[in-house]
Write a structure and sequence with these properties.
The structure holds 2 protein chains of 2 kinds. By secondary structure, chain A is an alpha+beta fold. Chain A is 30% helix and 36% strand. In chain A, 26% of the residues are buried. Chain B has 2 domains: 48 residues; 119 residues, Nuclear Transport Factor 2, Chain: A. A 4-stranded antiparallel β-sheet of chain B has the order 1-2-3-4. The chains are: A alpha+beta, B alpha+beta.
């Protein structure tokens, strides 16, 4: 086969496959053109940092992209309102549950703002933990050190947990580590007592239970007065946790008295354990109870009855 | 016959598209080449007339390249070093220009105020900065340092610096003002 044959063959091939050849040539030209243009475009380089505000410190989970800007904007708007002492606008941003639990009226919220934002503050955020549709952020509130250089003060910050909860197509916003309110309505009743655990407020690091207790007898009843361990406990996955404040405030009911208490237990909302029940381990029905330290032990020793009550929760709570 | 006409039409269209593409490619490359040539020409003019500036520009380019390859801690330390170098070389205006505007307004309303403070509090000649710790608060960095001088053995000052980095070598700072 000589050169002329090869040339003729190529020519014939091109003639027979004119369309295909043209499409391939044009495709190649487009690829070369795009490649050339992209290569000559200068890419903007940005300083790389290790700061990832929307990735949880606890488990490296990421807040969904669709919420990231909204969360950052909400925090920014809230802090700006607080800096400007625009109490009402800041208060309106907070969810109703959070308002009821932490700031039942705007005066209390105003105190919070005045306390936290005595001067202009700046802030930084870091996603801390994510629970299904709840996104918990650490917000460090600091003096405006870029403007002051922290002159005359110690460099430091107040850390607070801001919580965002997906609610249909919206985000509910809570501060002070408040997560949610759960209605429980768990109860136990015998001939002496009626105990109704109405609800609990869940915070990042503790739970506060609202408990209504009725003394049905003609005798005083001591439920907890700090004289023994584990008088009042929360069962969290088999571990008994004592109430935080029983040591300071006795739980004593006079005959036919009905009182609503708030019992607070340490519990992290992201520890993966559900509370199973509340234990009243040392109920004492007494002949009399004066509360005097000098006669207290004698009165307790003369108890008509000593017993315990367990109020179990629905495990979902 | 009909098929041949159709095929010819298609062929002509394709040729037209190809020509348009080639023309576009030609003009794009021409524009890019012109830009490059302009930049080169500027450099040549600069090198022929202002050598000192060229040296400075080269140094800046090298510094920028270094920053691009550095992690954030190193970058912030380099920024701090730059500020201290300005003070050391008594280029107070350049150092003053790196201050955060609100900080300037609060403590050093004029360059003279700043110069007076720096001359009073910082070593007058050789300055050594030890970087003790760094913290990040969102977009801000807090750098804890100790300032010493080999020429003043008794001198030592703990100094906190605060930085915000907008881009490579584009930053603002403030620092704890000593009373």
């Amino acid at each position: 086969m000589n050169f002329i044959d090869i040339r003729l063959k190529i020519r014939r091939f091109i003639k027979n496959n004119r369309k295909k050849v043209m499409i391939i040539v044009i495709a190649l030209a487009i690829i070369i053109a795009i490649n050339y243009i992209l290569k000559n475009m200068q890419q903007e380089e940005e300083p790389k940092t290790t700061y990832e505000p929307n990735i949880a410190v606890m488990d490296s989970s990421e807040v969904p992209q669709k919420w990231q800007d909204e969360i950052q904007n909400k925090i920014d708007t809230f802090i700006n309102y607080c800096n400007d002492k625009n109490y009402q606008s800041a208060y309106d941003m907070i969810s109703d549950d959070c308002k009821v639990a932490l700031f039942p009226d705007i005066q209390e919220f105003q105190e919070y703002v005045d306390n936290r934002f005595q001067v202009k503050r700046i802030y930084s955020i870091q996603n801390f933990s994510n629970l299904s549709k709840q996104y918990i952020y650490d917000v460090n509130i600091m003096s405006d050190f870029m403007a002051t250089g922290s002159t005359g003060t110690n460099y430091g910050y107040v850390q607070e947990k801001f919580v965002f909860t997906e609610d249909d197509k919206d985000l509910k916003f809570a501060i002070g580590g408040f997560i949610r309110t759960n209605t429980l309505e768990a109860f136990s009743e015998d001939e002496n007592l009626k105990i109704v655990i109405q609800s609990k407020n869940v915070y990042y690091d503790h739970e506060a239970y609202t408990v209504r207790i009725t003394n049905k007898t003609e005798h005083p009843i001591v439920i907890a007065n700090g004289t023994e361990e584990n008088e009042l406990c929360l069962n969290v996955a088999g571990e008994l946790r004592s109430d935080e404040y029983v040591q300071d405030s006795n739980v004593v009911l006079q005959p036919e008295e009905e009182t609503t208490y708030t019992f607070v237990f340490n519990k992290y909302c992201d520890d993966g354990n559900a509370p199973l029940g509340m234990y009243f381990n040392n109920i004492r029905v007494l002949q009399s109870y004066s509360g005097n330290e000098s006669t207290r032990q004698e009165e307790l020793d003369n108890a008509i009855r000593k017993y315990s009550i367990i109020v179990n929760f629905n495990v979902e709570n | 016959m009909k098929k041949d006409i159709k095929s010819n039409k298609f062929f002509k269209r394709m040729i037209l598209i190809l020509i348009i593409l080639l023309v576009l490619l030609f003009f794009t490359s021409l524009i890019l080449r012109n830009k490059l040539q302009e930049a080169e020409t500027e450099n040549v003019i600069d090198s022929n007339t202002i050598t000192a500036e060229e040296i400075e520009q080269n140094a800046e380019e090298r510094e920028l390249e270094g920053l691009k390859n550095a992690d954030e801690r190193t970058r912030i330390q380099q920024y701090c070093g730059k500020f201290i170098r300005y003070i050391e070389s008594k280029d107070y205006e350049s150092a003053y220009n790196l201050l955060y505007p609100d900080f300037k307004n609060n403590y050093f309303k004029t360059l003279e105020d700043f110069t007076k403070y720096v001359q009073e509090k910082f070593p007058s000649d050789l300055i050594i900065v030890s970087y003790d710790n760094i913290e990040r608060q969102g977009q801000y960095y807090v750098l804890f340092t100790t300032i010493t001088s080999p020429l003043q053995p008794d001198y030592s000052m703990d100094q906190r610096f605060f930085f915000v980095e907008n881009d490579f070598n584009d930053f603002l700072l403030s620092f704890e003002v000593k009373q």
